[in-house]
């Protein structure tokens, strides 16, 4: 049994604002240690439950946050950027299931540090389905026939996962009070919860079906302002929907849609607000 893990940071226990997830801020170093320990609770349980291989993809910011020297020695870590498939780099049809750890809710919804890739995005759509990072990544997993069997993060991320993926196991390590505050478990208590939920998710893995993406999906990204839409529209094949800040792209499959999203959001970040 081969397990894929994507580990983000905003949904990790006790982390509530930019000082925890920005490498230049005072809380970051202790936060990446908590992040690493949290990943280890899932990894260790996976091996105990019979997984022969666990591949972990560091999925936050520059994607070099996890402390490799502290991970279970049999872990394979995908780290650093640029990655052609970002938060789902290395995911393919050889995996039995995928687990998302430290995940947050999508932009324009409640939840601790909720957003979708960049803070200039209001909404992502795949055809008419609104998704965030969680949903987009689950669609890529589904393209390869891999079910997302567990999502760990705050209560709003868990709610988003449950609405999107029937029978998914969720581990709620903190409850959102606002976008920058939460009632959180301690790392010790969260660790026990993650161990229990990982074992349950692996036991119930056959109850979860892959989230199959549509053929030839239309990607639509609504940006916060028109300048961002203009930058994103520099990518060939895109168009701005008249009277909106939404940029549209017809993709041949979900993999192309995912990479189009990466390019469009990177371009949009060049926008000046002066």
From TrEMBL:
Q: Per its UniProt record, what InterPro entries does this chain match?
A: DppA_N, Peptidase_M55, Peptidase_M55_sf
Signal peptide (from-to):
none
A single Pfam family it belongs to is: Peptidase_M55
Identify this protein by name: M55 family metallopeptidase
Protein's organism: Cytobacillus spartinae
The upper taxonomy is:
Bacteria, Bacillati, Bacillota, Bacilli, Bacillales
């Amino acid at each position: 049994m081969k397990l894929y893990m994507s580990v983000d940071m905003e949904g990790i226990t006790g982390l509530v604002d930019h000082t925890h997830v920005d490498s230049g801020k005072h809380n970051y170093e202790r936060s990446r240690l908590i992040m690493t320990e949290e990943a280890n609770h899932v990894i260790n349980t996976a091996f105990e439950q019979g997984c022969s291989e666990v591949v972990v993809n560091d999925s936050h910011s520059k994607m070099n946050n996890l402390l490799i020297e502290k991970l279970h020695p049999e872990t394979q870590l995908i780290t650093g950027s640029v990655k052609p498939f970002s938060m789902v780099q290395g995911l393919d049809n050889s995996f039995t299931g995928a687990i998302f750890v430290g995940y947050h809710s999508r932009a324009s919804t409640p939840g601790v540090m909720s957003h979708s890739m960049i803070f200039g995005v209001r909404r992502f759509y795949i055809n008419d389905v609104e998704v965030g990072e969680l949903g987009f990544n689950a669609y890529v997993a589904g393209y390869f026939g891999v079910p997302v069997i567990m999502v760990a993060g705050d209560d709003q991320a868990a709610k988003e996962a449950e609405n999107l993926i029937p029978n998914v196991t969720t581990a709620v390590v903190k409850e959102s009070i606002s976008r920058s505050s939460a009632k959180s478990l301690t790392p010790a208590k969260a660790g026990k919860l993650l161990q229990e939920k990982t074992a349950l998710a692996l036991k119930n893995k056959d109850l979860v079906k892959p989230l199959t993406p549509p053929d030839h999906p239309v990607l639509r990204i609504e940006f916060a302002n028109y300048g961002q839409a203009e930058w994103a529209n520099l990518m060939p094949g895109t168009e701005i929907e008249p009277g909106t800040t939404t940029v549209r792209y017809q993709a041949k499959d979900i993999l192309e849609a995912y990479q189009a999203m990466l390019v469009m959001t990177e371009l949009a970040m060049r926008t000046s607000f002066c």
